[in-house]
Amino acid sequence: MTEAHPANDPQAARQHWLGVLAHAPRTLLAERMGELMALPFDTLRAPEVGLVMLRARVAQHGERFNLGEATVSRCVLRHQDASGRATVGVGYVLGRDMERVGWIARLDALLQQPHWRARLMADVVAPLAAALACERAEAQARTAASRVQFYTLQAEAAA
Predict the structure, then answer these.
(1) Rounded to an integer, what distance in angstroms lies between the CA atom of residue 21 and that of residue 9?
(2) DSSP state of 92
(3) Which residues, at least 6 apart from 3, have a Cβ–Cβ distance to it below 8 Å?
(4) What's the pLDDT at 154?
(5) From 2, 98, 111, 126, which residue has the greatest number of CB atoms within 10 Å?
(6) Angle at which helices 26-33 and 98-111 pack, to 10 degrees?
């Protein structure tokens, strides 16, 4: 999630920042909102909670099956800048955090506007991406510490 995306691929860039924002811890995201809460936004879809069906495959092949349901919150907001350019921001997160999806939708709408993008990428998205990378590295280190190597089973199976 921390890799840079070329400027000529806005879809990949948007997927990147939406992924970072959706996975960012609530406390870190709340710290970054500050003055952005005072900006005017039109509500296209108020924050709401719903369910999505999770689907899976055994060993990533074969027929899909319904694994279960997950609670999802979503929100859609529109921001119009001083020049009249309007952008629509979306926010989706697992769980029931309606305030958080509003923050994500605000940031998404602003990140689509060129005069906000560089500042928000540097002040919000990059620090959140770095924090997520650090959390993942720590989790991988904890997992690696408990890893068991089964070299003896491999040798016996080969004989």
Answers:
(1) 19
(2) E
(3) 16
(4) 56
(5) 111
(6) 50
Altogether, the residues listed in the chain come to a count of 159
Residue with tokens 């029931």: 96
Q: Where are the domains of the chain?
A: 10-158
CA distance 29 to 33: 7
- What are the structure tokens assigned to 94, written together? 């697992």
Query: Mean pLDDT throughout 99-119?
Result: 94
Neighbours of 46 (CB within 10 A): 12
Distance CA 5, CA 13 (A): 6
Q: What are phi and psi of 14, to 5 degrees?
A: -65, -40
58-96 residue pLDDT tens: 887 888 999 999 999 999 999 998 888 999 999 999 999
Tell me, rounded to whole angstroms, the distance of Cα 30 from its chain centroid: 15
